[in-house]
Amino acid sequence: MEGYTMNMNEVIANITLVKIVSISPDNESKKEGTKKTITLRMKYDGLTLSDVFQKALKDDVISWANGSGGRKSFDKLIDKSTIEVSAKSPGSAPMECPEDAFLREAKAAGVDIENEAALAAYVIKRMIAKKA
Q1: Residue 122: how many CB atoms within 10 A of its CB?
Q2: Taking the complete model, does pTM exceed 0.90, yes or no?
Q3: Which of 27, 56, 117, 131 keeps 20 to 30 A from 89, CA to CA?
Q4: For residues 103 and 126, is the Cβ–Cβ distance under 8 A?
């Protein structure tokens, strides 16, 4: 689409994002497996293309600013400079295997993963919570 220009101030109509999401009342309930699954129908009618793009790209900007591009490279950044960043599609990031994800979650929950008894207790607690 080289040479194509979009009017970012154009108001859109009939745009709805449908997504199935899981919701927990708080972090403790989430850890215990308490959740509800709902289908969310997010309507974007009446917004401009610019509004939609700003919303869609907000997480990318925040991730860059808080991550290795921004905070970790702060001393190398030049004030008022322009930095070009290539965004990746959602499926292009390397996937974390379930075992690594589980160990990361256990560590985040304060479990000493070198202690087999503590790790086993955490596994059992999680499995019981999933049954409920």
Answers
A1: 19
A2: no
A3: 27
A4: no
Contact 14, 47 (CB under 8 A): no
- HSE on the CB side for 110, CA within 13 Å? 1
Joined together, the tokens standing for residue 20 give 């199935």
Rounded distance between C-alpha atoms, residue 72 and residue 79, angstroms:
15
Distance CA 20, CA 42 (A): 11
Provide the pLDDT confidence category of residue 19 given band limits of 50, 70 and 90.
confident
Q: What is the pLDDT of residues 49-106, one digit of tens each?
A: 888 888 878 887 888 788 767 788 788 878 888 877 776 655 444 455 677 777 888 8
Per-domain residue ranges for the chain?
1-56, 95-132
